[in-house]
Structures are given as C-alpha cells and as structure tokens.
Amino acid sequence: MKNIKILWAIIVALGLIVFGAGYQLITGSTVVSSDGRTAIVLTKNERNFVLGEMRGLLGHMQQLVAAAADRDIDKTIAIAKRLNSDSQGEKQVGIIAKTPLNFKKITANIHSQFGKLYEDSVKKRDANHSLKQVSMIMQNCIACHGAYTIIEEQK
C-alpha cells in the first residue's frame, strides 16, 4: 500500500512538471505591456541579441528591395541567400523557451518565408516576384511587432 502511495506521488509530481513545462511552452515569459501588447521578458543580453538579429534582417530586406527595384536579379539572389542563412541564425534555446507559442509560430513562418524567397529568386529570377514576397514577409513582421514587444527583466 505504501508503494502505491509513493508511486502516485511520483506520477502527480511528474504530471505537474510536464504541465508546467507545457504551460511555459505556450505562454512563455510574458507580461502585458503598458501599450497593451504582450511583452516578452528577456535578460538584457537576450534582448540585445534578438533586437540585433531583427535589425540585421531588416537591413538585408532593405538591401533586397533596393536591388529588386533596380532589377538586379543577381544581387537580389545574393541578398536573399544572406537573408535565408541569417534567418537560420544561432539557436538560443533559453530565448525560445521564454517566447509564447504564437510568437514562435510567427517567427517560424517568417524564417520559412526567407527560405522560399531565396528558393524562388533562384528558380524564377524575377525581381517583381521577390518584391511581392518581401511585402508578404513584412506583413508578418508588422503583425508580430503590433502584438509583441521585448522588455528587459527587472532584477
């Protein structure tokens, strides 16, 4: 009888751990910001890392728009390749664990769109098509920035 109680205690404890991990995966480390968006709470270094990655991708997107507008398909392809490889980036498991599920979905979608942008730029060699794809990617960026902000955790 005592063994059964211990077994049930272990099962309950494991269940709580799994529930907690699942809850963390879905909600992340978030609070509601003063402007109503969901604020993802990161350390100073994590926040700087994420914002640096975003600025880098945004800079490459601007370069791609300029190259595509000039109808320079070879430069468009080169920048699309850079966007694709940069978007794969260095995986930060600690940061990923702190982001809510919907944020993870949006960013995964954006990153897969960078891959499709590169793939299509090579196959189609059509600057207008690349510009349309950048427009679609930017819609996701705007939606994400409209829903989320990243704040530094208070110590």
Automatic annotation (TrEMBL):
It comes from the Bacteria. InterPro entries: Cyt_c/b562 (IPR010980). GO terms for molecular function: electron transfer activity; heme binding; iron ion binding. GO terms for biological process: electron transport chain. It comes from Candidatus Thiodubiliella endoseptemdiera. This is Cytochrome c.
